[in-house]
Amino acid sequence: MTIQVYHDHSEVSDEEFNKLKELVNEGTFSRIVLACDFITGVNVENASYGAGVCAERAALTRAVSQGQRKFRVIAIAADTEKPIVPCGICRQFIREFSENIALFLFNQDSEYIKVYLKDLLPLSFGPESLGIEVE
């Protein structure tokens, strides 16, 4: 399977994209930004690895608690050489909201790639699988 990688940011304006870059660079380990009022989250590490929470889920949970359920883009950054990608659990968690969400994946130098969740999680199980409409 081939994953299509994009290098544009057509889902958001230049101003919004610059704000995304600014916010993701503030994170000390990993940060996510949802382009619906720029809600942020960080990794919550725990000595018991299974009890930790990834930045993606932290931000989405925060957004939902504030009444948000529709997201245009998610930006994820980490202090790594290659752009960071969401873990499997986070991919499934994001899928609950839409399979068409654009993900901006940044590395330590603010270089990024853009992919769509449906490319990272093909043939996915989501609310529609249970007859629940989303979007």
UniProtKB/TrEMBL annotation:
GO BP, sorted A to Z: nucleobase-containing small molecule metabolic process; pyrimidine-containing compound metabolic process
A Pfam family: dCMP_cyt_deam_1
Keywords linked to the UniProt accession: Hydrolase, Metal-binding, Zinc
GO MF annotations in UniProt: cytidine deaminase activity; identical protein binding; zinc ion binding
GO cellular component, one term: cytosol
Boundaries of every CMP/dCMP-type deaminase domain copy: 7-128
This protein's name: CMP/dCMP-type deaminase domain-containing protein
